[in-house]
Amino acid sequence: MVGGSSLHPRIISTFVGDYRLLQSTHPLHALFRYSQGRKHMSMQLSRTLAGLTDIFFNRRNIDESKRKRLRPGKVSPYRPVPAHISRPPYVNSRKPPGIASGPEVHDEKGIEGMRASGRLAAKVLQHAGTLVKPGITTDDIDQAVHQMIIDNGAYPSPLGYGGFPKSVCTSVNECICHGIPDSRLLEDGDIINIDVTVYLNGYHGDTSATFFCGDVDPEARNLVQVTKECLHKAISICAPGVEFNRIGKTIHDHADKHRYGVVEQFVGHGVGHVFHSDPVILHYRNNGPGQMILNQTFTIEPMLTIGSINPILWDDNWTVVTEDGSLSAQFEHTLLITENGAEILTQC
Questions:
Q1: 116-143: per-residue pLDDT in tens?
Q2: Sequence-ordered list of residues with C-beta below 8 angstroms from that of 186, at least 6 positions apart, any chain
Q3: Which of 225, 135, 244 is nearest to 187 (CA)?
Q4: Those residues with Cβ within 8 angstroms of residue 222's Cβ, 6 or more apart along the chain or in another chain
Q5: FRET label pair with 141: which of 180, 186, 232, 288, CA 20 to 30 Å apart?
Q6: Do residues 116 and 185 make contact, with C-beta atoms less than 8 angstroms apart?
Q7: For 23-51, what is the mean pLDDT?
Q8: Closest CA to 337 of 252, 287, 270
Q9: In angstroms, what CA-CA distances link 173 with 247, 302, 329, 346?
Q10: How far apart are the C-alpha atoms of 242 and 57, rounded to whole Å?
């Protein structure tokens, strides 16, 4: 593969799979193996049951699908951001900052800042979803998202993060996450995850949802519905003192009931002044440490698949698709831990 074999931390979610690895002093890219010939990513301490998961939970033979595999389209140039809009510190560096140590815990001013950024992110995502229809390109969606964000005095957080070239992630069909908007036309029957993050007055608001394009078949609709249910079931158990590992169990249990796979290599994260911080939120069953703290903000963003949970990285070093081409769906919210549970910051 052109561009080398190292894997850097990703937008929205970061490559991890075992919380113990996060305690290591090694850079994140050293925690993964990468096969150039197959563009395949795997953790050095991969779970021995990963293969069994694919065998028992793969719901379809992709040879029976008439859907065409995704192919890269043409990517347009960076879109400009007015000079008066403040930028996150990473924008002028192509080196991704990774996960910052320590949780994002806010005072009243910080909470209001997070609410404002979350509301804007939710409104932008809602608008982006209205654009989804056959014949529109994902680059068209990026243009609309970019314009709405800067019109509101905010910066599109993905733009320039580790060299990411666009203002939003658009992940179509088998794309698990981090799809780069390009010239590909959306087709009738597609599903598309749109992942929006805005940087407003020093705070990031991060959210995503999966949308239907035209007439979507029942199997795809069910995957999307169950993925959304997984997110909201996980949110419902959040409160001060709750162990983070309960999030993964809640999501995994519900996915298992419907025989869907849960992608393990991408995670939720703390978010606030920085794009990605502690805690790392694992979406699968785990024994990771840590408890939720009052006034803490973080994301939950499960990714479910109909078939294989193994990710393949494209040559652009961002786009991640399922190994077998089976559909994947994702939903995400930024949460604030309150005395009574969790407040969803990224909803209109």
A1: 999 999 999 999 999 999 999 999 999 9
A2: 132, 133, 134, 135, 136, 137, 138, 172, 192, 213
A3: 135
A4: 258
A5: 232
A6: no
A7: 36
A8: 270
A9: 25, 15, 8, 24
A10: 29
Euclidean distance between CA atoms 49 and 46, whole angstroms: 9
Distance CA 277, CA 259 (A): 31
Beta carbons within 10 angstroms of residue 181's beta carbon: 25
Cα of first residue to Cα of last residue in the chain, in angstroms, is 42
41 band by pLDDT with thresholds 50, 70 and 90: low
User: If DSSP codes are grouped into helix, strand and coil, which group holds residue 93?
Assistant: coil
Which residues lie across from 336 on neighbouring strands?
297, 343
Cβ within 8 Å of residue 119, ≥6 positions away: 205, 345, 346, 348
Which helix (H) or strand (E) segment holds residue 261: the answer is strand 261-262
Query: pLDDT tens-digit profile of 302-318?
Result: 999 999 999 999 999 99
Whole-number percent of the chain with pLDDT over 90: 78
